[in-house]
From TrEMBL:
UniProt KW Signal keyword: yes
Protein name as annotated: Ig-like domain-containing protein
PANTHER family: CD83 ANTIGEN (PTHR15193), PTHR15193:SF2
SUPFAM superfamilies, per the entry: Immunoglobulin
Domain Ig-like, chain residue ranges per copy: 35-128
CDD domains in UniProt: Ig
Organism: Alosa alosa
Amino acid sequence: MSACGDVAALLLLMAVCLSGSSEALTEMKDIECYSNVSLPCEAGRVGPKFRSLTWYKVPPLTPASLQNRTGILRSRADNTTLYRYHRQAALGGEGQLILPRVTPNDSGIYECLLRANLGGHNLESSVSLSVNACIEPLTVTPIRRGWTVQKSPLLDVVGSARWMGSPRLYFS
């Protein structure tokens, strides 16, 4: 085969491989802690029927983790299968991933993969979810001749406080 033939064959092979899937752009979200979120599957907005829709969470980017996605759920026809994901999740009417009461541990990249029927094209889209820190107020309660500081679930205050007259409060 000539050099031109090799290049043409390579280009044809690349075109076939690249046409096998299509990926939508990443959508960024900035979510308050303990909110219920619905992550859209941009690939799911396409009309044709697909064999299945699967949601994954992608681990932080490291060379070893490129193919190590965590399955969350898969939907085929009228049957939705939940994988052994560490938290509650559900599938919305248009293929959205519904995550109730998110925390910063839920932050990351989520992928929606639509597997096409024979002869079709697989589609995937990604959503980057960023959940704000869960900050709970510190409660200070006055008691006789001093103050007591109660700890918050996310903040540990160790020590004691004493009242030193006028509006000064000393912590030790």
